[in-house]
Amino acid sequence: MLAIIRQTVSNGASRNRPAFYASRSYSAAVKEMTVREALNSALDEEMSADPKVFLIGEEVGEYQGAYKISKGLLEKYGLERVRDTPITEAGFAGIGVGAAYYGLRPVVEFMTFNFSMQAIDHIINSAAKSNYMSAGQLSVPIVFRGPNGAAAGVGAQHSQCYASWYGSCPGLKVLVPYSSEDARGLLKAAIRDPDPVVFLENELLYGESFPVSEEALDSEFCLPIGKAKIEREGKDVTIIAFSKMVGYALKAADMLAKEAISVEVINLRSIRPLDRATINASVRKTNRLVTVEEGFPQNGVGAEICASVVEESFGFLDAPVERIAAADVPMPYAANLERMAVPQVEDMVRAAKRTCYRSV
Amino acid sequence: MAILWRRSRNIANRIRKCMNKGFMGCAVVNQSCWSSTFQSSSLSNLRPVPYQNSRYLRSLPWSRAALFSVLRSKSTVAEKQLDSFFSSDSDDDHRSLDFPGGKVTYTSEMNFITESSRMRVPCYRVLDDNGELIMGGDFQQVGKDVAVKMYSDMVTLQIMDNIFYEAQRQGRISFYLTSTGEEAISIASAAALTEQDIILPQYREPGVLLWRGFTLQEFANQCFGNNADYGKGRQMPIHYGSKKHNFITISSPIATQLPQAAGIAYSLKMDNKKACVVSYIGDGGTSEGDFHAGLNFAAVMEAPVIFFCRNNGWAISTNISEQFRSDGIVVKGRAYGIRSIRVDGNDALAIYSAVSAAREMAINEQRAILIEALTYRVGHHSTSDDSTKYRELDEIDYWKMARNPVNRFRKWVQNNGWWSEQQETEVRNSIRKQLLQAIQVAEKTEKPPLTELFSDVYDHPTSNLQEQEKQLRETISRHPKDYPSDVSV
């Protein structure tokens, strides 16, 4: 499926360059790239283009990144721009915020967003709110990134999804890439954005390979923040997901297609701002909705999507909205329990069928 | 305005020779080794230098001016001391071990480092309680213009605090917090810096902004949250901020400014600027995790930042004896590898000198510095507090009258012939009038308009915010009587 390219809102005169060069001739073979490579290339290009961008976090330098996302960057850009830090999330998040106040563009890596809670005051009370509280005097062009959500067998304190926590705070932008193109385009857009961005990756997606278009490989490629992507068009039911769950939703769509249910899969890409327009347009088309997330159900992303759809497209719903989320328990470790605590493809298939009155 | 201390290379070399004989670091072993030093010191009239140095200092005829040279050269010589420890043996090398972090000598005597030194770290002071220069002291000379500005700003701050506090009591503003008793700290430290140095305040340092030229009207506007407030009425009173004055907007959570200061200092370092960052914190704030994070990072990153701790004895009702068990804050500097000094926070000249020296070191040596200023919080924590509930009236009165930093500095300025009683009366009356006028104007100024509810959340408003604003305007136009008439739409 071809990636749809849109120009990001320009945030500086120097950035007004065409998104791709028409004079190039593209090869027929589609390139494949892992999410890891996508993130690495995005960081590399942004650091190369703007000397104010720097990376800070635990193990990002010498170790090449806890998940090897920052591989080669220390060697290329040196100690000043790739900083290994002591184990103090509050410390390096605070330092990043300070550097951003000054005018640098830090990319702060949390080893997982579970650890970001030790720094959450800096993210919420300083990064998110400073521009507003200072009436525009203190802008915070910072990116907080790292893996979010469940991996495999890492237990309660390493598995929580923070999309809804950060998504509820005004002043932040919260992005959730799925594919390699998402990762590249959204990270580049996040680094260029003058507002603080929380960039939620997923550990299990790092190694996954996706085809990328030539346009996406261009160093100016950015995706717009706040626009969801219709990964697969359909007409019977809409499944809305983000991050890893998009892959599951696509699998569920394949399975449902065999039973003649045409599923429209939406990849949110952005939790805040939430693309209510795309969500509602899709629901008005299919009249049925299933929301999927890895996080806990209460006050989750699905709850917000439900509220938006009820507010704006109530008359178009032919069935109640189905909400799929993690079990309302801290993530257990044992493999069998873990499997039951997170959404599976079968859950999505059953939920979609329920909305189509095909099963109980 | 000549700087009075100048290193003598001979003296520095003499120290080096003495230190190479391994006379350093006696604090680690027996307490008695250095405590007795103090009793028998022939230099007992001198202000003792950090205790570790005193053992070898005893044997050398020091002049006070040389003390700073000790502090200076100590940093360069210190690295060489890693291999030799306190010992008079000449063959120590085979008694040392290699570990991550370097060589360390071993001993088979089991000795715990005591939890506190016998003597507290002494406090640097230039003026006595009567505003007289202490004989033989070293300090940075202050000329007439600077001294007069310092003094009149201290008076302005004092009066501003009184009048705004009263305004809160009268219900004209919702909240206020004074720096009564700590005027010397904010004014004198600001005076020792340049406009390029970036300030990250806690909340009891409006004097810094006052020094840099923030007007009484601008202070009043912020307190009233009106349309002329640079903060557009977004924050509670006293949360001042001014980009043009390099004064980062005050943020309420305690100590978050410390790692942020390290971050800004790191940015100055990356940009090769000849400027530093100064961040303020109270005694209570040093208990926050961010204090540890900020200092540790600043040290590791070798960032040019001055951490200025106002130890005023109280964190709302928590006395320092319940806040920490260390000898104040100054001793914590060493734990992070940060050079530190304790100063008399009610002595404007001492603060001026210490901050000047700290700034030079921070910028030229690219390092963090910790300054602990001992003082007393004369006022209540804020208008939401009544400190007579947890401390004695006598205590408060004593500090207000007998240890008043403004009076003390005035005596010195007057003794130099730079100030008179007549000027005192004139200035006080004038400031009072200006303040009352500023309050009147601020009170009458319109509040920020409706657009300011939605702006600055992001760089450009997102679509949902634009929609919300549109909806709100529609609702207001349909139900105007349900909305306040004094907020312009």
From TrEMBL, chain A:
Q: Which Gene3D superfamilies is this protein grouped with?
A: 3.40.50.920, 3.40.50.970
Which GO biological process annotations does it have?
pyruvate decarboxylation to acetyl-CoA
Q: Where is the Transketolase-like pyrimidine-binding domain?
A: 33-208
EC number(s) in its UniProt entry?
Answer: 1.2.4.1
- State the organism of origin: Durio zibethinus (Durian)
NCBIfam families hit by this protein: PRK09212.1, PRK11892.1
Protein role? The pyruvate dehydrogenase complex catalyzes the overall conversion of pyruvate to acetyl-CoA and CO2. The pyruvate dehydrogenase complex catalyzes the overall conversion of pyruvate to acetyl-CoA and CO(2). It contains multiple copies of three enzymatic components: pyruvate dehydrogenase (E1), dihydrolipoamide acetyltransferase (E2) and lipoamide dehydrogenase (E3).
Q: Which gene encodes it?
A: LOC111289495
InterPro entries the record matches: PDHB_mito-type, THDP-binding, Transketo_C/PFOR_II, Transketolase-like_Pyr-bd, Transketolase_C
Cellular component GO terms, alphabetical:
mitochondrial matrix
Name its co-factor(s).
thiamine diphosphate
Give the location in the cell. Mitochondrion matrix
Q: What is this protein called?
A: Pyruvate dehydrogenase E1 component subunit beta
TM spans (from-to): none
Q: Which residues form a coiled coil?
A: none
Catalysis performed (reactions): N(6)-[(R)-lipoyl]-L-lysyl-[protein] + pyruvate + H(+) = N(6)-[(R)-S(8)-acetyldihydrolipoyl]-L-lysyl-[protein] + CO2
Q: Main subcellular localization, coarse class?
A: mitochondrion
| UniProtKB keywords | Metal-binding, Mitochondrion, Oxidoreductase, Potassium, Pyruvate, Thiamine pyrophosphate, Transit peptide
Q: How does it assemble?
A: Tetramer of 2 alpha and 2 beta subunits.
Looking up Pfam families in the UniProt record yields: Transket_pyr, Transketolase_C
Query: Origin, by domain of life?
Result: Eukaryota
Does the record carry Ribonucleoprotein as a key word? Answer: no
Automatic annotation (TrEMBL), chain B:
List the GO terms this entry assigns under cellular component, sorted alphabetically: mitochondrial matrix
Q: What positions does the domain Dehydrogenase E1 component occupy?
A: 154-449
Where do the record's region annotations for Disordered lie? 454-489
Q: Where is the composition biased (Basic and acidic residues)?
A: 467-489
Mind listing the UniProt keywords for this protein, alphabetically? Answer: Metal-binding, Mitochondrion, Oxidoreductase, Potassium, Transit peptide
What is the annotated localization of this protein? Mitochondrion matrix
Reaction catalysed by this enzyme: N(6)-[(R)-lipoyl]-L-lysyl-[protein] + 3-methyl-2-oxobutanoate + H(+) = N(6)-[(R)-S(8)-2-methylpropanoyldihydrolipoyl]-L-lysyl-[protein] + CO2
Q: Name one Pfam family in it.
A: E1_dh
| One Gene Ontology term from the biological process aspect of the record | branched-chain amino acid catabolic process
Q: Which cofactor does it need?
A: thiamine diphosphate
Please state what class of enzyme this protein is. oxidoreductase
This protein's record includes keyword Transferase: no
| Known EC number | 1.2.4.4
What's a Gene Ontology MF term here?
Answer: branched-chain 2-oxo acid dehydrogenase activity
Q: Can you tell me which family this protein belongs to?
A: Belongs to the BCKDHA family.
What quaternary structure, including any partners, is listed in this protein's UniProt entry? Heterotetramer of alpha and beta chains.
Query: What is the protein's given name?
Result: 3-methyl-2-oxobutanoate dehydrogenase (2-methylpropanoyl-transferring)
Species name for this entry? Durio zibethinus
